[in-house]
């Protein structure tokens, strides 16, 4: 078994275990490109089919949209939501504990909205800071444990506008 450990966009660690015989199918020059996949299943399917994968995970597509396109759409949609509710939204380069988001350079920030059903947040690179017109906090609010499944909290924002 061969274990690939790598960082996506230098921020998230992903581990993929690949049987030795299948790892050998990957050309040496493409090992990094293959390692930039989201899941072992996608990696194995690509290896078995001889698919040439993009060098950047963001260029990986489901046949309709790339990850980069979907992340851009999420960025724009969340900016609209935050900007429609600036009174309950906030942004900060630091997490609740005072640490910078992901790095020590302040290259990322967290933006959140406090819905009637709880908070929801995303992290973005600092180049997108000015898209969000809301309160700037020295440190972000304490994480309430929300996960991607809690995105439905955003639906409760309809209750905020009367």
Short synopsis of the structure:
23% of the residues lie in helices and 22% in strands. It has 162 residues and is of the alpha+beta class.
Could you explain how this protein is built, in words?
The chain is an alpha+beta fold. The chain folds into two domains: about 1-60, no CATH class; about 65-160, no CATH class. Helix content is about 25%, strand content about 20%. It is built from four helices and six strands; from the N terminus they run ββααααββββ. The strands form two sheets. Strands 5-4-3-6 form a four-stranded mixed beta sheet, with helices on one face. A two-stranded antiparallel sheet has the order 1-2. A hairpin with a 2-residue loop joins β4 (about 110-115) and β5. The model is unreliable at about 1-15 and about 25-40 (pLDDT under 50).
Keywords:
162 residues; 2 domains; two-stranded antiparallel sheet; 6 strands; 22% strand
The largest beta-sheet arranges its strands as 5-4-3-6
Number of structural units classed as domains: 2
Number of strands: 6
Helix % is 10-25%
Stretches where pLDDT is under 50 for at least 5 consecutive residues are 1-15, 25-38
Biggest sheet record: 4 strands, mixed
Mean pLDDT: 77
The proportion of strand residues reads 15-25%
As a whole number of angstroms, the C-alpha radius of gyration is: 19 Å
For the record, give the distance between the C-alpha atoms at the N and C termini, rounded to a whole number.
58 Å
Provide a count of the helices.
4
- What best-fitting shape do the alpha-carbon axes yield? globular
